[in-house]
Structure formats: C-alpha cells, structure tokens
Amino acid sequence: MSVEFKDYYATLGVARDASDTEIKKAFRKLARLYHPDIAKDKKTAEAKFKEINEAYEVLGEPAKRRRYDELGAHWQEGGPPPPPRARRAADGAYREYHFGGTGFSDFFEQFFGRGARAGDFGDLFREASRGAGAGGEAEFAMRGSDIEGDILVTLDEVLNGSLRTISLQHTDSRSGEVETETFKVRIPPGAQEGRRIRVPGKGEPGSNGAAAGDLFLRVRVAAHPDFRVRGSDLVHELDLAPWEAVLGTEVMVPSLAGRVKLRVPAGTNNGQQLRLRGLGLPAGADGHRGDLYVAVNVQLPEQISAEERELWERLSRVATFHPRGR
What is the pLDDT of residue 114? Predict the structure, then answer.
C-alpha cells in the first residue's frame, strides 16, 4: 500500500528554510486555534490539530527534520524510498498493517513512528520447526506475533483518561484480501509519553489454533501551545517585563483546570521557576498529581522612546545594584 507524501511545511505555513523559532511560533499560533483541549468546536478542530501536531513532531526536532528533508528530495527525484517489508505472520502469509484513529497518518507511521509492524518471531520458530516430524510446519501451532504502533494522546486524556475508537486494517499478500477491525481502547489517566498500552488478542492471528498476538500502542503526548511535559510535571513559560521581575507582580497563568493567579515575588530572576503544587499530570494510581512550574523569561524592549531612555539612564545612575561588582 503506497502512502501519500505529507508537506509538513505547508501544514504549518512556514518556508522550507524557516528557523526553529519560526516553526515553534507557527505551531503555537495554529495550536491555539485547533488544539482539542482549547478549541470551542472540538470535533471540527480535532482532525486539523492532528495534522498540525504531526508536522511539528517532525519539523520541531532537528534530526527528524533533516531526515524529512532528505525524504522529500527522494520523492521529488522520482519516488519515495521503498516501504518497510511486510512481516510474515504465523500462518505463513505476509501482512501489511495500517491504523485508523490513532492520530498519526500512514506516512508518519512508516517513516517516523514505530509503524504497524509485527515481530519476526514467526520466521524464527518456523525455521526451527522444519523437518521436526512428518507433519513439519503444517502441524506446528504457534502464537501470532505482537503488533506495535503509536497513539496520539492529548494532555486532557492524560489527566482524565478516555475511551478511543481504533481501527486496524491488514492486507494479506497472498489473497489480496483487506480486512478492517474496529475496537475500543481505553487510555488510562496518567498515560505518559512512551507508555505501552496492551490490547490483548488484537495482534497477528496464530497458526493451527494457537492464540493471536497482542497489540501494543505506544503513547505519544500531543504538543501543547501552553505547556511542556516533564514527567508528571508541566512547564509553562511566562514572559515578564524587567520592572515586573524587579518589583514583583500578580499574573494569571493557564492550567489544565483553567487560568489561575500566580504571585511573582520581587527580585525574580530570569530563568527562575515558580511552582504551583498539584496542577500537573497524574503521578500514580492514588490520584497524586505532579506540579505546574512557571518558567520566567524576562523580556527586554527592542525599541524605546526618548522618555523611556531618559528613565533608564536615570536608573543606571542611581541604581545600587552592580551585577559584575565594582
């Protein structure tokens, strides 16, 4: 099954030579419109956000971006690289698998994800069984291989859990028959990045009456315009004016429960992190949650008026603070 090339630069609306900062800004701008945790019309926004997140997942990481650029060049030169070989199942057939409802396209799964691949244990056991008796391979009952793939999970799902509808399509190389199975997958609260969710019996079918393998979906937490995920903690970047950092202030910051008030103490340094306890993600089965950290970024004005310059110059003359000493 061939896949369609995805133009991730067009998805984010940036040039191919865009800087990392420009890519990040473009993602945040679009995510604020379409992120399902934020958008008013969640159903309409969901499909669009999946495309945006997938594009940022690739272009937002330098190594993946370089690989993507090389891949695009191959496509333009006459065709994509050959897809991964379909895996041999326990019954001797080669099968190719494709997911629906996981939040990632076939293009991403094939070239940047784990992919809907099964293990090679079927080949190993089959080779070991050859010549084992009169029945040989035909009499060897073997459990089906496991299948792995990725599933996109939002922070709201990590916080509250959800029930997702997933479809798994497989094509038999011998008969050409295409079968699609649809089932429910429960995303438990606290499902962090990299966690594998096991769906029993949804892997490759076994041979000669043996059990089917399992399906394992690896959690990929969707990027969020307001937060970075750090284990069970969340990090929000807060821009402050110099006088706010020096004098202190009160600001409203986003959290998964809505906007909350934060007191910024006088004398807060650039890069300092202020903690809001219990506003992170689930950290265990007991319901304990991590924290929300607000990372301070003190911003300097790029342009100032004549009056502002006069005030800064006056401050420089009367200030007793000398960062490098006298």
Answer: 60
C-alpha–C-alpha distance, residues 307 and 301, integer Å: 14
Amino acid letter for position 81: P
Residue with tokens 């821009």: 239
Coil vs helix vs strand at 232: coil
pLDDT at 131: 40
Asked whether 59 and 11 are in contact (CB, 8 A), the reply is: no
Total residue length of the chain:
326
pLDDT digits (tens, 9 = 90+) for 69-91: 988 877 766 555 544 444 555 45
Tokens describing residue 210:
């043996």
Q: How far apart are CA 240 and CA 20, in angstroms?
A: 22
Q: What is the pLDDT of residue 121?
A: 36
What residue ranges of the chain have pLDDT lower than 50? 82-86, 90, 116-138
| Residue at token pair 């809001």 | 276
pTM: predicted TM-score of the whole model, two decimal places: 0.77
217 to 23, 36, 102, 107, 190: CA distances (angstroms): 28, 21, 9, 17, 15
- In angstroms, the Cα distances linking 301 to 238, 276, 308 are 16, 28, 10
Q: Cβ distance 238 to 298 under 8 Å?
A: no
Return the structure tokens found at 227: 């937060």
Q: How many CA atoms lie within 13 A of 216 on its CB side?
A: 13
Task: State the Cα–Cα distance between residues 282 and 151, nearest whole angstrom.
Answer: 19
Tell me the backbone φ, ψ of residue 111, rounded to 5 degrees.
Answer: -110, -20
253 to 6, 271, 275: CA distances (angstroms): 35, 16, 12
